[in-house]
Amino acid sequence: MNDEERRQKLELLKKSGFEPVHMAYTFEDFEVTGPTKNNYDACRAFVENPLNLYVYGPAGNGKTRLAITAIKNRLLKYADEYGRVIFWEDFKNAVMADMRNDSTEYIDSLARRKCLLIDDIFRNGVNETTKAAIIRLFEKWGNHGKKKLIVTSNKDIEQLSKILEDDRAVSRTVGLFDMIIENAGEDYRVRNLKEKVVKAGQDFNARAVSLGVMK
């Protein structure tokens, strides 16, 4: 890849909502073990195949990083696809702005995308406006038979159903996804902290031994 091609790809990702830290994400970053293998395999498949994925699990186990890696690789491989990465707080703010202007343009613009990631939906609660917006987006996506959608959440399908409430909306939402995947595993932030604590303890012990304080 020459400098001009690299510049064009970076510009594509920037326009699609990627942040600078996301540019370095690769599939090689992940340890593919039992609890995360299904999610990893599905996100790898997303790069080559048109799929709608719902990935749920507790905070900190790599859902967002893996989903961003998948959609980034998809957009880099198929540069003509009109993609977007949306984080929940940004989604809520844009939807509320539309409501104040009595508009649905934001949701309609997302529905026109060919490839979409919505990260961490319904995090920190929900209101009727954002709920209606998600239902509208999912209905428009499904009505057009579109694929290449990834949604991440800490809500499983039962919890999501309670939020949506309406049986028709629940049925259409669940039916939209080709795969519903639980991303299990330890919070990587907690794991990293544990590793730092262990290393700090080892360093302290080694230093104490060298000073003759410990044997």
What does this structure look like?
This protein has a five-stranded parallel sheet. The chain contains nine helices and five strands; from the N terminus they run H-H-E-H-E-H-H-E-H-E-H-H-E-H. It is globular. Helix 2 (34-48) runs parallel beside helix 3 (63-77), helix 6 (128-143) crosses helix 8 and helix 7 (157-164) runs antiparallel to helix 8. The longest helix is centred in the last third of the chain and has 23 residues, at 188-210. Residues 187-196 have low confidence and may be disordered. It has 215 residues and is α/β, with parallel strands linked by helices.
Order of helices and strands: HHEHEHHEHEHHEH
**CATH homologous superfamily of the largest domain - what is it?**
P-loop containing nucleotide triphosphate hydrolases
* Helical content class: 55-70%
What is the name of the CATH topology of the largest domain? Rossmann fold
Total number of beta strands = 5
Which of globular, elongated, flat, extended, rod-shaped describes the shape?
A: globular
Please state the average pLDDT score. Answer: 84
Radius of gyration: 21 Å
Structural class: alpha/beta
The DSSP helix count reads 9
Strand content: 5-15%
Strand order, sheet with most strands: 2-3-4-1-5
N-C termini distance: 56 Å
CATH class of the largest domain: Alpha Beta
Low-confidence stretches: 187-196
Number of domains: 2
Largest sheet: 5 strands, parallel
**CATH-defined architecture of the largest domain:** 3-Layer(aba) Sandwich
Protein name: ATPase involved in DNA replication initiation
Pfam families: Bac_DnaA
InterPro entries: DnaA_dom, P-loop_NTPase
Domain Chromosomal replication initiator protein DnaA ATPAse: 24-172
